[in-house]
## 1
Amino acid sequence: MSDIKIVFDDENIIIVDKPAGILVHPTLANEENTLTKWLGDKYPEIIKLNWPDKTRPGVVHRLDKDTSGLIVMAKNPENLANLQAQFKNHKTNKIYEALVLGKIKSAGKIETEITRGEAGTQKVIESSYSFDTRASRNAITLYKPIKYYHYKNNDLTLVEVELQTGRMHQIRVHLKYLGFPIIGDPLYNIKPSRNLSKELNLNRQFLHAKHLEITHPETGNRMSFDSPLPNDLTEILNKMKENNE
């Protein structure tokens, strides 16, 4: 996992730029290719601390396996609690970029209830009255178009997304619900986006955590970090430019 880039590192926290293909922590399958395994290998003393969840040492928040970008991890349980409170109380700022099928004409806000779907997916509850007894959670996503593309009769939008809540698969679920599925997404898609993803040879969702802003748990300093689009996603945009009409 030498391709994990350290953006900031001190005795309290570490911020990394996670490539696609790496889990944040193991699932029931007990995977090895995880950020927690990488952290434990790099700093063995951290694993020995009294974490509230021994399977997730240092984990403040998560990115999906095939979502790239910035993520902060704590180096001790006290700073973990501080950072988790920041995320819970909306004291952080997380901004993503996504490429979606369709033309999003203006900025907007999506607010829905999200609950568990089938086979580990999530879904939007379409009305307040439902026979579904599974617990739901409020989810809020802000979005705005950055740039438009056209590729072989398909309109696409590069969109900037800001999370107001942090639900599992939230951006992917919300953009699909809005009618603009993320290109490359294997779960939340429609036939045209699946076909386009295959044609572009994109095997993961075009979703990147490009900006992270937190307050340092020890110093109280506000810290801001940015990450450029990785090469695989930049290459997709280059294909779009070559096929503009």
## 2
Amino acid sequence: MARRIVVVGGGVIGASVAWHLADRGLGDVLLLERDRLGSGTTWHSAGNITWRFSLGHDAAVHGMFRTIERLTAETGQDTGWLWTGRLFVALTRATRDGFTHHAEEAARRGYAARWLEPAEARRLNPLIEPSVTAGIWFNPFSGRLNPADLTAAFAKGARMKGVRIEEGTVVKRLITKGDRISGLETSRGPIAADVVVVAAGLWSRSLLAPLDCHLAQWPCEHMYLIVDVSPQLHRQTPSFVVPDCLAYGREEVGSFLIGFFDEDAIPIAPEALPEPFSFTLLAPRVDKIAPYFEQATALFPALAKAPVQRFINGPESFTPDGLPLIGRIEGIQDLLVASAMNSAGVTWSAMAGTLIADLIEGGEPTVDPRPFAPSRFGVRSADAGWLQAQASASVSGGYRKQNILP
């Protein structure tokens, strides 16, 4: 009899996990989504995917590029993938020096990355003012897609491989028998399971807490703007990242998307979110990101007078070290988690699905699972105060360390 595997959560991570499990024929897979596929945090993701040389990220991005190509071929579902490249913009010499390990590794591998002269920088993005920079490194191994379309592609591919997907099904609690997972209690009644994978994003911690499992993740508010600019940007304008003002962005239907990984990010408890919280946003906090926006206007002068088209404030789950939680839950057999993607769920989605499938299948994992182990923070994970403070600091921490997360 085939194993009954239930995946909880129908965002880009849960959909990826379901597709990877079915692709390997690891059991009868059921995906449960509390609302509709892609709700929660997936739908408001910026959808950037950028190669960089750092722990786990290298393999994750290469796997993502291969997966996009395969998904599109197998399902016919367009993900909106577009190669654009990315500008790594340094406003200080220290930040330029911080880019060198990416640049050196790119050169070693023969990637067509390069430092830009001012004229080429302006050609790639006519809104940029190179004179205020200490250097601009162009990384061509980068692009963007539509997260909702990627989720739809994973889901379509999963269905084609026999996965059942039930939307509008709330998982109320996980059921154990001894030290094993045995099922779930849902809004549609109990469901038996041999294996459960929790990929519920913002709600993963709350779902696992009754089992005395405290995930080291906490949601924080994350904000970006879409502004009208002149001249309008070409669709293939490279995305950009500016660590000195904690900013990132890209073209968005001719307009200009710019977001910030602010210091002292505002934590928010999942239970404090309004119900239903599916395709929902939080109230704008103009004052919170105004200092970062003002800094960015020196680099992009057009922003000073550009009207704001839309203000996006949506919670994202962060961990103390900026790495996701992917792996087995200690003490409960056949219970796994793939959560807390630190606002980079699109980038991590293929690797998360691969690693979960590896662990369920057994044998040697494709990547070392230890850096992503859900238990790596030990008993501190149960301390909500410590966790909130760590998650808040982690939002800007990736930029300050030149890891360039999103």
